[in-house]
Amino acid sequence: MKKLLLFSFLLIAAVAPSFGQQLVKYVGPGVPDTCYASYKAVRTRIPPPAAFLANRPLGTKATITVTYTGFTPEAQAAFQYAVDIWQSLLVTNVPIRISATWRPLDAGVLGSAGPSGLYQLAGYGERISNSLYPTALAEKIVGADINGSGAADINASFSSTFNWYLGTDGLTPAGQYDLVSVVLHELGHGLGFLTSKGYDVNSKQGSLSTPPSIYADFMKTGAGLSVADTRIFVNPSVELGTAFTTNDLYFDSPLTRASNNGERARLYAPTEYASGSSLSHLDENTYSAGDINSLMSPQFAPGEAIHSPGPIVLAMFNEMGWFNTAIDHTPYTDTETPRTFPVTVRLRSDGTVTPGSVKLNYAFNNGALTTVTMTPTGTTNQYTATIPNPGSGVRVSYYVEASDNETRRIYTAPGRDAFSTVSNRYSFFVGPDVVPPTLSHTPPAYLFTSNLPYTITAQAADNIGVASVTLEYNVNGTVRPSITLTRGTGNSINTYTGVLSTAAGPIVAGDVINYRIVAQDNSSNANRTALPATGFYAVPVVDVRPAADMYANEFERTTPIDFVGPGFSIATPTGFTNGAIHSTHPYVNNVNYFYRLLVPIRVKADPQIARVRFDEIVLVEPGEEGSVFPAPNFFDYVVVEGSLDGTTWTPLAPGYDARNNANWLDLYNRALSGENSAAVGTPSIYASRTISLLDKFKAGDVVQLRFRLYADGGAYGWGWAIDNLHIQDNTVTPTAQALQGAGVSVFPNPTAGQFTVQTRFDKPVANLEVVVRNALGQEVLRQSQTAVKGQVSLPLDLNKCANGFYLVSLTADGETATRKVMLSK
Predict the structure, then answer these.
(1) Which of 382, 490, 735, 749 is deepest in the core (most CB within 10 A)?
(2) Signal peptide position in this chain (predicted)?
(3) Cβ-count burial of 540 within 10 angstroms (0-12 exposed, 13-18 middle, 19+ buried)?
(4) Please, what sign has the CA dihedral across residues 807, 810, 815, 820?
């Protein structure tokens, strides 16, 4: 099964510089773009820009620091020369940090670079909101370090094996590649000249990240259609893939046209998609070697030197935000007190603010806008205006705008969306508050006694403000004193924590902690939110048990809590008549479910005994044909793992997926719906598995075991079911050898109605039972026999049944073997 390369980023972290009011969200890592070598010899030279030459050696507008790894002194000097060129052109008060590595790369690859992260800004000085900004550009717009002190903003690698020219004069000899040019090019990618995109060569579907990169916001087809506008192009889609491969794609913006004689900038979009190059470069033919705008074309030739980004690239950078006027403002939140509302902003402009252009626009209850020119406060770049008292029961919305003398663009706070001419607005309500706090919390599925004291964490926020967050709990039904959760500071002001400990009394294995979290706001109504909304979370307290020589469980009876872990439970879903371990059905993407056995097993020396045996159904996404566990293209899988310390886990055998059984794979594929499978497991497709403990551990080891289901970010299916678990259970070995081996046969198969089930037992079996079920799991025939030994033949008759597949289950001494028979009358 092929996967479409999609960009679905996981929210990893969020930071808020001290002057700001909203979150800057880290959305995902930047994907580097690659520069390939061309072997067509040219001799061209584009000198550095005048701004660089005029201000040497000390004049810079930005500070760029580089951490060099593996570079020779000569290569480092060439790299630094390229850095100095960018420093003379960019404007930012936040240092740009680069991690650069000099090492062998793939054949034909000169270098690659990309931002360390992509950030989504919302009301933080950006002109366009809800787009992805590379780290360095996001920090420039925000005006603060957002990825941690000392962390790299750009990661870059350059080939140490090419025939480089390491001089800085641009006089590159024939046959050599100019390192200054390649570094200048790759740093351009790290600074924002890149598209977060994907393309599937099989389905011909193209995709863009959600949200799109700020670069992609300006990409248009020859017909002028914005490829990132989902009102025009479905994402992903074949239509988007076509737009990527028609050699008719452009970066279109007012500043770009002004730098290019009124024309759009043609992008590299060859008819055969080039991973790592398509879309994130200027067109090679339009801006060929020797053209002043050729730096960001996809290939470099020997003898080619270009030490300037060129006017088109600089205009593109300025359009994305490297030339910016940020409007810093802390917006109002809801209040119960009617009054006037002074609005104060601070402008950070790379140019000069147009006199009289700083304006406050406000409206009451979505009525007509009122525009007021803001006046300077006397503090540099600070302006103010006042929203009059709206009275009670009124929603106020507003935004601030300004323009600069250089680009004459209008900037707003909050920023506007990429494909809208209507400005976003800040909004707050004046009047009695009836809105309860928002509250989120993920309860633990269980707690080991070693986890105590345990820190409970919740996220709480309110339009008026949170007054308190409280943990109310009991142990085994006995109420204990409530715990007040403490609010965080700085970037964690919406995070509340409290410590659950034994201070109010003992908590031991076997106890159940029942708790809820209650948040109350500061309003006159004292609005409250509780999690869960009714009742309590129930968290069992567990501990690892003493080691045992064997373990057996058919999940048909109430037992102590033997297993713990997220995503699994012992259940009897619809269509099943017996209990078993079941994963969540269906499972979801980006999960790592596991179910841990609390009884460690002391490994036996006998390989016939030191085994884990169980019946299972595995309906998880199959990997690419020929893929090997645990390669990325193996996709989703299930695996049984062991550990000596409960921390480091080792697969007892390679993980597997639906391809491991023909019935599983057939059912999974027959029920495909888009990328996912709607197949539902039934008892008829249970299959047996035996795994050796001695393959990974030695006799005498005390091993903890767990079942794990891993799912990546692509397709998903029904999941995993596990029944009849026997670990080193030698008491059933003779019967198991007969039933689970090849010694059970069904003939004739297919059958016209009458058939025979045959097996052999070398030792006496007290009770033998055969059950036949149809494809729906419904029992259609049952037959028993007692005190059997030797060869056993059981004649069966399905003449009264309809044609189709039937499952024949043969059970003896608690062991079960299954066979499928086809009825065709």
Answers:
(1) 735
(2) 1-20
(3) middle
(4) negative
579 forms bridges with which residues in the sheet? Answer: none
Q: What was the pLDDT predicted at 465? A: 94
HEC readout, 113-125: EEECCEEECCCCC
Q: Which of 116, 118, 103, 47 is nearest to 295 (CA)?
A: 47
Q: Which residues of the chain have pLDDT under 50?
A: 1-23, 58, 732-734, 741-742
Neighbours of 1 (CB within 10 A): 19
How confident is the model at residue 19, as a pLDDT?
Answer: 30
Q: Confirm if 704 and 544 have CB atoms less than 8 A apart.
A: yes
**Cα 813 from chain centroid?**
47
Tokens of 789: 């030994």
Q: Which residues contact 24 (CB under 8 A, 6 or more apart)?
A: 14, 15, 16, 17, 119, 120, 121, 122, 124, 138, 142, 146
- Residue 34 has what pLDDT? 63
What pLDDT was estimated at residue 15? 35
Q: What is the pLDDT of residue 3?
A: 35
Burial 165-194 (b: 16+ CB within 10 A, else e): bbbbebebeeebbbbbbbbbbbbbbbbbbb
- Nearest Cα to 620, choosing from 653, 587, 580, 593? 587
Long-range own/partner contacts, residues 762-768 (CB < 8 A, 24 or more apart): 762/734, 762/738, 762/789, 762/790, 763/734, 763/735, 763/789, 764/788, 764/789, 765/735, 765/789, 765/812, 765/813, 766/813, 767/812, 767/813, 768/792, 768/810, 768/811, 768/812
The full length of the chain comes to 825
753 and 798 in contact (C-beta within 8 Å)? yes
Among 535, 89, 561, 528, CA closest to 350 = 89
Q: Which amino acid is at 446?
A: Y
Helix axes 73-89, 179-191, angle to 10 degrees: 50
- The per-residue pLDDT for 2 is 31
Residue 137, SS3? helix
> Which residues on adjacent β-strands are paired with residue 100?
68, 156
